[in-house]
Amino acid sequence: ARANLLALECERTGIAINIGTGVETDVNTLAVRMAAACGFTGDPVHQPARPGEQNRSVIDPARAAALLGWTPTTDLDAGLDATLAYFRARYEQRSR
User: How far apart are CA 49 and CA 61, in angstroms?
Assistant: First the structure.
């Protein structure tokens, strides 16, 4: 969200700026961390990759730092915890 607000103030337009940590996280690690954040204790179910599915991705935040002054401040686990808290609160609101 902070990067989006900084982008609104940026004088450069029409340029792609990646927002990410520069740290690659594989899907298996992500699944384990998400399960831990949720308290899920079951086993993951693996499926074959879908046609055209991206195998790897690491987003370099260098351009965001140079053009926006933005650097990542939230690590993966804190981000997952915040995201889970948001969705739990939304679920509780709808359940009332």
Answer: 27
Residue with tokens 């351009």: 63
- Retrieve residue 46's tokens: 């693996």
pTM reported for the whole predicted model: 0.71
Per residue of the chain (96 residues), give pLDDT as tens. 899 999 999 988 888 999 999 999 988 888 899 999 999 999 989 899 899 988 888 999 999 999 999 999 999 999 999 999 999 999 999 988
Distance, in Å, from the CA atom of 49 to the CA atom of 35, rounded to the nearest integer, reads: 20
C-alpha–C-alpha distance, residues 25 and 57, integer Å:
8
Q: What would the two tokens of residue 25 be?
A: 């996280």
